[in-house]
Structures are given as C-alpha cells and as structure tokens.
Amino acid sequence: MPFRNLLFFISFLVSGLIFSQENAQQKKSYTATRIESKPVIDGVPGEELWQNIPVATDFVMFEPGNGNPSRSTHPTEVKIAYTDKALYVAAYLFDSNPAQIRREFAQRDNIPTVDYFIIDINTYNDGENQTRFYVTAAGTIADARMKKNNEDFAYNVVWDAKVSIDGKGWYVEMEIPYSALRFSDKEEQLWSMQLGRKINHLNESYVWNYINKSIGVSTHYNGLLKGIRDIDAPVRLSFYPYVSGEVDHFDGETSTAFNAGMDFKYGINDAFTLDATLIPDFGQTPYDEVELNLGPFEQTFGENRAFFTEGTELFTKGDLFYSRRIGDTPIGFNAVQDAKLNDEEIVDNPETTNLLNALKISGRTDSGLGIGFFNAITEVQKARLYNPVTGEAREVVTEPFANYNILVLDQQFDQKSSVSLINTNVTREGHFRDANVTGFLFDVYTPASAFNLSGEAKMSRVNLPNSNKMGFASLLSFERSKGRFRYGLSHEFANETYDINDMGLNFTNNYNNFYWETSYRIFEPKGIFNEYNIRLMGNHQRRYDPDMSVTTNFGTSFFAMTRDRFAFGGSANYSTPFRDFFEPRKDNTYIEYPENAAAEAWISSDYRKRIAVDSRLSYNKYLKTTHQQLRFSFSPRFRVSNKLKLIYNFGWMKEENRESFVTLLPKNVIFGTRDMQSVENALQGSYNFNTREAISLSFRNFWSSATFSEDNFSRLLNSGGLEPVVYEVTENNDPDANFNIWNLDLSYQWRFAPGSEMILLYRNSIFKQDNLSALAYTESLENLFNQPARHNLSLRIVYYLDYNNIKNIFKG
Predict the structure, then answer these.
(1) Which pTM was predicted?
(2) I need a surface site. Which of 11, 28, 541, 759 has the fewest CB within 10 A?
(3) What is the number of domains present in the chain?
(4) Which residues are CB-neighbours of 380 under 8 A, at least 6 positions away?
C-alpha cells in the first residue's frame, strides 16, 4: 500500500467513524493532608497523626465480580498524608480470619500468591503514565510502570514500606519520596490514583475507584488525588557506585578480574531525568536460554541488563529498539573466516562488543508531551589472525567504534490516546554500515473507550559502503474495546528493502498481511467459571513483490478459570499450504510446505495450594505427509514453607520427517529429511530469610539432536517443490547435530539498605556441540560431563547515595 494511500485510509477511518457517547463514570476524589513531621514507618499506623486524617474506603470488587461492594468482614481503609519531602500512606486491611492471610516471603519485584495492597499514582492525570507500588502481607515491595493493563517491573525507584498483622487484619505504612516521582511545578497538584487490595484465600480483588472491565483499560479509571500543594520537587540526584570482582576457572586456567564503576540518575527539571551508566559491568546477568538453532533466523533473548530495562517505555514504542543489539556479536564476526589468507589461523575473534557508556533522558511535560533520548557507545572489536608459516600476525576490525541513539516524541491527549514520532540511528566509524529508522505511530480511543484505532508508518535507511537501501513498513489496526463481544481487523505491510536490524529486530519483510479476530468473554462469575474467553481468528499472508499468496490460517482458542482457581484452555489451527521464503536462505526462492493442522491444550492448577502444576501438550501435523511434531511440558511447583519454594520444569519435543535446509551450493539449494528431538530439565528454587535476604538456585540442562536421513537429499525447484539429488556427506559437511548445555547459578542476595545490595554468585557451565546425533540423551549427557567445566565466582556490591542526604552530611 503506497504511503499516500495509507494516510488517506487513516484519515478516512478517523473522520468516518461515529461512536456512541456514554456518561463517564463518576470519579472518586480524595484530599491528602499535610503533616508537619513524618510518621515512623514501622507498619503500625496507630500514631496520633493518623487519627484525624480522612479515610478512603467503600472499595468495590474488581475480580472475579465487577463492582460488587466489599465484604463487611473485609473492609479496607486508606489514609494519605504528605510533607515537603514525601507522600505517606497508611492502609488498614481488615480480615475476619487473619490466620488465612497469605504471607509467602519473596524478594523485591516478585509477587507470589499472597495478599497485597497497591497504590497507583499518576502525577500527570493523563490515563497513561502510571506508577504502581505493591506491598505484600509478608512485607515484600514491588514497583512497576503501567502500560495499559501491562506491568513493567524493570522500573525501580527508592521508597520504603513496612507491614504488621494482628487479630483484626494486616496494616501497611508507606513512604514514597518525591524523588521517586516526576510531577509538574505547580502551586497545587492534581494527581490521579487507584487503590487496590488482593485477598488471596478468597480469590478476590477490590479497588477504590470502580473499574468497568468491559470497556477500555484499567488505567483509564483512576480517581483523583487532591490537596497536595506548595511542594517543590527535590534535587533528584542519586548515585549507584559499584565494585565487583570475579574468579574464573576453565580447562586448567584461572583468571581474575576487578571492576568498579557507577550509574547515576539526575532530575534535569521537575519532569525530565537523566540516567547514565559509566564503565558498565554486566558480569552477573543471568544465562541466556540457548537452544540448538537450525532455522533461518537468529535466536533472540530477553534483556537481562538493568540499565536497558528500567524506564525504557518511551524507547520501546513501535518495536524499533531491540536492546541486545548494543553489545551484540560484531557485524564482521562471520566474515573473519573469509578474510583469512593462506595458512592463517584465527587466534581470537570476540563474540561480543564492549559497551563503553550509555545514557538516557526521558520525561513528560505538563501538556502531555513525552520526550526521550537514548545514546550508547561501543568500542572497536578486532579479530587476531596468525600465520604459523611466516610468523606474521595481523588484526581485522570486526566492529568499529559505534554510536547508537534514539529520539522519541510522544504526545498524549484525552487521557488515553497518543501520537508518537521515533527515530533510531546507528553510526559506525569507517566504511562499514550505518542505519536510520523513523516511525510515526498513533493510538486513539473514542471518548467512551468503545473503539480503538492504532497505526504505524516506518521508514528505514541502511547506508552500505557501495550502496544505500530504503524501506517502508506500516500497520493499521481497528478494534472494538468494549463489551463481552469484541472484534478487530488489522493490516501489516513491509516492502522488500525494509530493514531495522541494526538497532531493532525484524525477521521478515516483503509482506502484505491481513488479520481478523472476534472474541466473547465474561467479566463476572458465571456457573463454575470466574472468567472465560473464546476467540476466533484468521489471517491471510501475501508476498508484496511479486504479489503472491503465502498462506491462509484459521484458528480458535479458549481460556477459562474456575471459581477454584483451576485454569485451562487450548487452541486449534488450520493453515493452507505455506510458501516459506526464508528456509532456503536464497533470495526470491521458496519451499512450499503442505497444509497443516495444529492443536494445543494446557492446564494450570491453583497456586494457592502447596503443590501446583502447569502442563501443556501440542501436536502439529502436515497433512498428506509424514511430517509431524509433538511437544509436552510439565512443571510442578512446591511451596515447602512461606520461605522455601521450588519449581521444576520438564520439556520434551519430537519432530519427524521435516524437509529442512542443508546447504547452499553454487547452482542448487540442498534439502534433507530431518528428525529432531530435545529434552529440557530446569529447576528454580529460593529460600528467603526475609524480604531482603535470599539464596536462589537456577539450573538448566538442554539437549537437542537433529538427524538427517541417509541418502535422502533433494534439490529445491523453482516451483517450491523438491527433486531427489545425490549429495555426498563427509565429515566436513555432515548436517547432523548434537547439542548439550548445562548451566547452574547459585546466588546469595542481600539488600542491606534501600537501593543498595550485595550479590555473591557462583556459576557452573558446560557446553558441547558435535554431529553425534545417534547418541541418546543419557549418552550425550555422559559426553557432556567429560568436557571441562567453567567455574565462576563473583561478588558485586552496589550502594545507593542520595544527594539530598549527602549534602546534609557535608553541611554537618
């Protein structure tokens, strides 16, 4: 779809849609009380200063019902006060049977199946920029940024809370410093807020301001928080200096390392914050869940580095930022093999790029304009080659000095809608590769939140040494966001030169796809169910150039949860023949896989019980062939006590007779018939001494093997079919694979002060990959243990320093 036609289509839909208006739900309001001295945060809000402060009460049910009054046996009362430095909250969570209060211990940002209290604060009252603060009955705290109904727990600020319990229920006291919030410089603030409570043994949730689950999203239903006036945003300057040391032993060699550096946050003004990391250290990030990858696309992993997960909601708009690109494998890593001269050997070829420093600036003005700027710099990486015949050594640059940056402008309006502009840029020194991507986004709700229209238009430009290429992609989506019965339509487009992979992530381009779905759900208990959701969906996928059909899919899914918290569901899907343009690894070439049918079923039992189980079974069959795949997973969890929990996961997969890529020859693309199987065993456990100290164990063993049938190879035809061919397998080109990896992490974590922590981590890892695919799992495991193991012991200490506290020390 040409760009001008896309803009016309958007304008037509926006101007042509006529939506019914509904009376807005009356919002509650609460007026906070100024106090002269702060309360003692001990979880016992019985001090005199709390006595004359107004009460926020009359909570209504959020789940499983929709607006029912709270039980008379479980009333909730909340009081809010403030000083010049912080907001203070006292919550009285009464319970007629305190012995039933769930109090499982956990560390920060981990919310197990417990009773908890939440307060959501939106300092801009814009329906979008909301921070959620959790406190559990055991005293665990958590904070998250809200994005519609999603929670981002990577967000972390420094605040404090304590709890207590007696014969009438449990109580919370919270202190939220203004340094943890961003707000405008006004004489009187007008914030919005939501208060909530989870009573786990009743399986019920209550909120202060009614949320109509059948319309829009929960962040649109905040009440108002008034009365906070004559406060000044403090100097928001904090430092996180760290020191770390490690000892690494592998294959008879031992090495040591010591690092020191610092992160810091600075409030540029009342709305904007600068975050920076100087001399970053990511040595204690968790292992990636690596698997045997024989497909055409790279394996992707989640982000484990805190700097790239905290406060990045602006930068992730449009899905143009895949943070693992920064510090990723050098772009010339694979080219080193081709760069070798006669007799040369590769002595060293770094697999990652070192990050020198990074910073981000983000915030939002009074008018609802969000501005974000991100910048990171990586250093030069070089491979070392040596010629043993001549004795000459040389270096090859695999990743030059590079700069990554993002600029985002996000204008919000009507408390639930937004338009955004985002630009990402990668500039590499020298004649390598530069890239730039610009995206325009909009997300618009009708006044009554009954309908949503969203869209994206993105332009990419890649500058290569001898050529440039520009690409375009778009997305347009319309959906009904109200009521039990909902529906939606969307369209995705990308031309053949669209490429965002320098800073983003896209596996495919050159598509012209159409999607549709409809669903029916309930919002109040019905029969044996607390909730259920039935969906029907489909899509038609096309190649843009040349225009041709790729496949058409039809499917259905079902989700349900009973009143006893037993969840189950499943899905079924049918696809017409599929033209795969990526498996052959050759431009404008495809293999056609036959039509297939797939089904899946899963269960998840009640996590409130000491023993709970998650399990999933799926089957995929390519019709009129012997190609099929079966997957099974089983994950029991054991709550030994309120301090000790264990989770085991077993996964198994078997695929038979798949026509798979083998190699690319000058004139032919060779395919073979492949069988593949895998087994995964994983164990996670934690013992929590309290909500600040814990010992954690994480273990994973993943084995996978792929076996190609002997003398059963084919060459790919222009029609997408296969024709038998003679292909000689030798030791150097054997496509069989046997992959086995073992990772173990054992850590002790101690949060010894707000924002400060110490982590002692022991790691053990073993890896082996060869072509001995005939080995059974136990035989492969035995071979794995014959490999040298890597042992790593590291200690990292981070200390939080607030400028407002430091300056008082210096004054003293």
Answers:
(1) 0.88
(2) 11
(3) 1
(4) 397, 399, 400, 401, 429
Domain for residue 271, yes or no?
no
Residues of the chain above pLDDT 70, percent: 96
All residues at 6 or more sequence positions from 346 whose CB lies less than 8 Å from its CB, including other chains: 336, 337, 340, 383, 384, 385
pLDDT surpassing 80 at residue 539:
yes
Yes or no: say if 376 and 87 are a contact pair by the CB < 8 Å rule. no
pLDDT value at 451 more than 70 = yes
Going by C-alpha positions, the residue among 300, 298, 402 that lies closest to residue 355 is 402
Measured CA distances, 222 to 27, 196, 410, 655 (Å) = 7, 11, 21, 50
Cβ pair 331, 241 in contact under 8 A: no
CATH number at residue 169: 2.60.40.1190
Check if the beta carbon of residue 273 is closer than 8 Å to that of residue 263.
Answer: no
The distance in angstroms from the start CA to the end CA of the chain is 68
Answer yes or no: are the C-beta atoms of 355 and 324 closer than 8 Å: no
Angle ∠(587,588,591) on CA atoms, nearest 5: 100
* Rg (alpha carbons) of the chain, rounded to whole number: 29
Classify residue 600: in a domain, yes or no: no
Within a domain: 395: no
The verdict on residue 150 lying in a domain is yes
Only one residue has tokens 């949860």, namely 561
What average pLDDT does range 463-481 have in this prediction?
94
> In the 8-state DSSP scheme, what is residue 803?
H
Beta bridge partners of 520: 485, 534
CA–CA separation, 622 vs 672, rounded Å?
17
List % helix, strand, coil for the chain (3-state, nearest 5).
10, 55, 40
Task: Give 89: exposed, middle or buried? Use CB within 10 Å, 0-12, 13-18, 19+.
Answer: buried
d(CA 712, CA 656): 14
Type of residue numbered 624: K
The C-alpha atoms of residue 540 and residue 489 are separated, in whole angstroms, by 12
For residue 592, give both structure tokens. 């056609």
Over the stretch 329-347, which tens digit does the pLDDT of each residue have? 898 888 888 888 888 889 8
Q: Is the pLDDT of residue 697 over 50?
A: yes
Record the tokens describing residue 33, joined without a space. 């009380």
Burial (0-12, 13-18, 19+ Cβ within 10 Å), 108: middle
Mean of pLDDT values over 730-757: 93
Distance in angstroms (rounded) separating the CA atoms of residues 352 and 401: 13
Q: What's the pLDDT band for 17 if we cut at 50, 70, 90?
A: very low
**pLDDT (tens digit per residue) in 358-399:** 999 998 888 889 999 999 999 999 999 999 988 899 999 999
Give the whole-angstrom CA distance, residue 8 versus residue 81: 51
φ, ψ of residue 9 to 5 degrees: the values are -65, -40
Q: What is the rounded distance in angstroms from the CA atom of residue 543 to the CA atom of residue 548?
A: 5
* DSSP one-letter code for 215: B
Mean pLDDT of 614-638: 97
* DSSP state letters, 280-342: ---TTPPPP------SSS--------GGGTTT-TTTTGGG---GGGTT-S-TTTTHHHHH--T
Token code pair at residue 3: 């760009």
What one-character-per-residue DSSP string does 532-554 give?
Answer: EEEEEEEEEEEETTTTEEEEEEE
Residue ranges making up the domain that contains 188: 32-226
Instruction: Name the nearest CA neighbour of 238 among 751, 691, 756.
Output: 756
Per-residue model confidence as pLDDT tens digits over 129-174: 789 999 999 999 999 988 777 888 878 888 999 999 999 999 999 9
CA 406 to chain centre: 19
Burial label for 59, CB within 10 Å (0-12, 13-18, 19+), is buried
- Statement: residue 316 has pLDDT above 60: yes
pLDDT tier for residue 25 given thresholds of 50, 70 and 90: low
SS3 label, residue 782: helix
